[in-house]
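Support reply, case 0932

Customer input (verbatim):
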Amino acid sequence: MTILDGKKVSNDIKNEIADHVQSMISKGEKVPHLAAILVGSDGASMTYVGAKVKACERIGFKSTLIEMPEYTSEEELLEKIHFLNTNDDIDGFIVQLPLPDQIDEQKVLMAVDPDKDVDGFHPTNVGRMALDLPTFLPATPYGIMELLERYQIETSGKNVVVMGRSHIVGRPMSILMSQKRPAGDATVTVVHSRSKNLKEITKAADIIVAAIGISEFLTGDMVKEDVVVIDVGITRVPDQTKKNGYRLAGDVEFESVSKKASYITPVPGGVGPMTIAMLLKNTLLARERHG
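Our regenerated output:
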């Protein structure tokens, strides 16, 4: 069993981008500038955004963090998005999800300029992805594809099961893996909360992408020998043996599934670091596109 080390691969990618940034600086070119909007003080969101800002500093990007209070109105947030859309100094930006209840998430994602949408969530970019046209790929699926490629995992003709149908992971993952690309050409099945005979479906899978949002849902008796498992989930599970009172668990019960898997991502240290690396890759792409 091989651990798919997202931490190591994401560091390799960051080093590659840092080298590229150095060559941009030596040519007198403008370095990429990523902005992030954080509304409220959700603990997980603050951690993610903090990690993104740190990663920018490490590789030589400029970064701007815009923090807005929990009670921010939809109109105020849309104004801030308009400001970033029209600011030539900003190459790409993200609005950290989830947003407070008073704000319509869909409306916000629609307001982001597709040319600066480095999260790859705008319908224009999702449509371009579905048509296999050059675009910003959603960072988490993009990271998973990169992980599969760099570990040279054979996907062509394989039976892939994607657990979950979210617009952020499940749906784009199923599209990308069915396309003609290095980590593609697979036969893809999407399962979700309404799927029947789930165990039969997962047991037939060569590769499983678990993005169902239920901690330790996929267990060893649901997979076959030599399966490749990508765990996208991350949940805080109460654990009194830990100093902070919780441990981080994925959607896969690592203990039992890893005994059968040929490759598996850990939680943490698997898909999470890859998401940030690909966000940086998208920001570099945005900078190059803007000339």
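We compared this against your earlier run and they match. Two observations from our side: The mean pLDDT is 96. The first strand starts at residue 2 and ends at 3. Please reopen the case if you see a mismatch on your end.
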